[in-house]
Amino acid sequence: MKAENQTLATVTLQNYFRLYEKLSGMTGTAETEAAEFASTYKLGVVAIPTNRPMIRLDKSDLIYATEAAKYRQVVEDIAARHAKGQPVLVGTVSVEKSENLSKLLAKRGIKHEVLNAKNHAREAAIVAEAGRFGAVTVATNMAGRGTDIMLGGNAEFIAVTKLHQAGLNPTENPEEFEARWDEVFTAVKAEVSVEAEKVVAAGGLYVLGTERHESRRIDNQLRGRSGRQGDPGESRFYLSLQDDLMRLFNSGAAAAIMSRTGDEDMAIESKLVSRAIQSAQSQVEARNAEIRKNVLKYDDVLNRQREAIYGDRRQILEGASIKDKVTSFIERSVTEVVNQNTGSARNSDDWDLEHLWIDVRQIFPVTISVHDVLAEYGAKITPADVTRELIADAMIQYGIREGSLGETAIRELERRVVLSVIDRRWRDHLYEMDYLKDGIGLRAMAQRDPLIEYQREGFTMFQAMMGMIREESVGFIFNLDVQVVPAGGVTQVQAPGIAPAPIPTEGLSYSAPNEDGETVVLDQSGRQPNAPQERLRPRRGNQQPPAQGGGAKGAFGQSLE
Questions:
Q1: Does the structure show a pLDDT above 60 at 547?
Q2: Can you give the pLDDT at residue 275?
Q3: Is the predicted pLDDT of residue 144 greater than 60, yes or no?
Q4: Residue-level pLDDT at 511
Q5: Which ranges in 362-447 belong to alpha helices (H)?
Q6: Which residues pair with 483 in a beta bridge?
Q7: What pLDDT shows up at residue 120?
């Protein structure tokens, strides 16, 4: 059995980017997502003309009946291009498929390089050579994006490589390296220029996609590695009816045509089919955008709470006095305890005053008795009378506590205690909100809107959390055994459980996309963690000394309006 994960902090990428006062970006493939940029970030998308005319030839897709037939034709096409010296960049959707294609090319005797997550250390070298005469490079989606593949090769990188091979290193022997640099770079640049002319004559870089992706952006990024800066180039996608996208959105028309030919190596090439595939991609993009939009709606509920918590927490960390807040904590905590024990009963005989006093003593050392209050107000006593007397007594005890510790020490104690309680309760609240979100979809079976239910219950849980923060903070401020230690002219407060404790990094993990674009949970070494952290559940009244650490806040504000 394993302990469950504990979330320390969470924020969606959308709300993270919204934290910036000014937001902008630049990419070559944003136009297909213009609607989502407008709805999520209120940002428009402007297409900037290319520096030089784009002369790349984008050919229609070729569709085959089976994946095996597709890869046979892919290898044949690569072999033909390789024979005439045209550099080829092959795009695959996963590491596994890139390695399978590599085996087919090796069996055919075609020299090539594989660029994926398994050899990312050589990424720069592989990209530098990808535009050379006769080069064949098999790459996954994530590898080498946004990189200029220079026709004929990258002269600067090749020159550095040659100097390294000669035993010269810019860090170990910089003077010798600098002395040889101009000579070697000039010679390499001349060689690259000659080779670039041969590559241009062969047709430029040929980009071959082995499968359409769910997102048109990824396809456009793959195509965009060819034809940069006015260079000639060519691109084409090879598809099969067994590809994931084709299986999901294939209408059956292509399969019907292929069944008549009886030859699985026969391809369908049609602009109409290509447009149908792009329409299928648009449907997938719309579905994924709707999923992200729905996730954002739920996170917006938590984001309002997050802003309140972090705003209060920042006030404490910046060293501001929170005496007024603590005073408010005392008043609210006492009021809530009185209301819980008196309820709606108007007759004081129905009140459990003995239990009320027991609860109040958990917050501060009460000096007045039940009999004193009853003797003063008699049978006409109201909950407001009890609250007023208890708050007055609490303020007297608060003044005594401040006098015994000193103003500097009590202010430091307040900050550290409230910060610790906020951190701990906020982490527990995040877990409870996750738990609520996991099951909220079932409310739809009762004809209720899950989002409205999540908003309502989330707000109730947040209010309850703030009540616990107030009550626990006041209890610790009154009852902790504190030692005031002068150190170098600075007053330090020491108490069990409030010493700063670093968060253990061994158990921390984060979510990130993998090579295939799927979100996975990784630890700090980039591997999937084997030991999730312990689940914590908040329990009212179980007040242990708080531990100082990073977390959140939200105890000061009472509403999120």
A1: no
A2: 77
A3: no
A4: 58
A5: 370-377, 383-405, 407-440
A6: 494
A7: 67
Q: How confident is the model at residue 330 (pLDDT cuts 50, 70, 90)?
A: very high
- The DSSP bridge pattern shows strands 57-58 and 233-240 to be parallel
For the entire predicted model, the pTM comes to: 0.66
Q: Which amino acid is at 427?
A: R
d(CA 431, CA 8): 9
- The H or E element that residue 269 is part of is strand 268-269
Give the single-character DSSP code of 120.
G
Q: What is the pLDDT of residue 517?
A: 43
What is the Rg, in whole angstroms, of the alpha carbon atoms belonging to the chain?
A: 34
CA distances from 542 to 42, 299, 435, 478 (A): 46, 30, 21, 16
Lowest mean pLDDT among 212-226, 334-348, 389-403: 334-348
Indicate the pairing of strand 88-92 with strand 483-487.
unpaired
| Terminal Cα distance for the chain, rounded | 43
Residues 223 and 235: beta-carbon distance below 8 Å: yes
d(CA 89, CA 139) in angstroms, rounded, equals 7
- Conformation bin of residue 492: beta by default, left when phi > 0, alpha when psi is -120 to 50: beta
Q: Given this chain, do its domains 61-269 and 295-523 carry the same CATH topology?
A: no
- With cut-offs at 50, 70 and 90, classify the pLDDT of residue 488: low
Structural domain spans, the chain: 61-269, 295-523
Mean pLDDT confidence for 323-348: 85
Distance in angstroms (rounded) separating the CA atoms of residues 547 and 496: 9
The answer to whether 431 and 274 have CB atoms below 8 angstroms apart is no
Q: Work out whether the CA dihedral 526, 529, 97, 215 comes out positive or negative.
A: negative
Which CATH code fits 61-269? 3.40.50.300
Half-sphere exposure (CA, 13 Å, Cβ side) for 438?
6
Angle between helices 370-377 and 353-361 (to 10 degrees): 130
Would you say residue 417 has pLDDT above 60? yes
pLDDT digits (tens, 9 = 90+) for 29-39: 888 888 889 98
pLDDT of residue 60: 86
Kindly report the length of the chain: 561
Residue 124 pLDDT exceeds 70: yes
**Structure token digits, residue 472:** 């626990």
Write the CB contacts of 61 (distance below 8 Å, at least 6 apart in sequence): 212, 236, 237, 238, 239, 269, 273, 274, 277
Phi and psi at residue 381, to the nearest 5°: -65, 140
Q: Which CATH number fits domain 295-523: 1.10.10.60, 3.20.20.190, 3.90.180.10, 1.10.3060.10?
A: 1.10.3060.10
